[in-house]
Design a protein that fits this description.
Helix content: 10-25%
Shape: globular
Strand order of the largest sheet: 6-7-13-12
Order of helices and strands: HEHHEEEEEEEEEEEE
Number of helices: 3
Length: 171
Amino acid sequence: RLENGERKDTAINLLRTKECVIQLAEVGHTQLIDRSAQPLAADQSEVDLLGLETMPSACVQVPRIANGSVQLECVLDQMIPLGTGLNELFILEVRCFQVAERILVGNKVEPTAYQPLARVSGPFYAGLSEVYSYVDEAWAVGVIAYRGIVSVFSLAVYDREMTSYTATHSS
């Protein structure tokens, strides 16, 4: 929400269209992400302001950023007011996602090729310091662990030989 309590344009647009594209940023996009967070009037577009190119999405009507690394095309499942109603939780269904060819080897995600950017708070950002793999032989479960970053979803499916991570695509 804005400081005056009104919804931000992103929430307004999501409630109006019931669709969105989540663009996952990389460390190299820090300046663009920071500039996109500046307050703008409702009739101003961050895409236009930053000179970004868009392209049609595959599963939703909302366009996506043309040079994005990972993009989740989503539809709104529900919005849940939290607490006194000032905060809202948007639950989205991912209809499909796009992964840039440069972070793929064949049809497999190369975990070290993608450098995700996390916005911690205000002007503070974080990247990965280390990518490592872990196999718990007792449970035969594989995990891709990113030190210092907690992921709420996974773009990879573990293969038991620890040789690769397979990009998944839902439709």
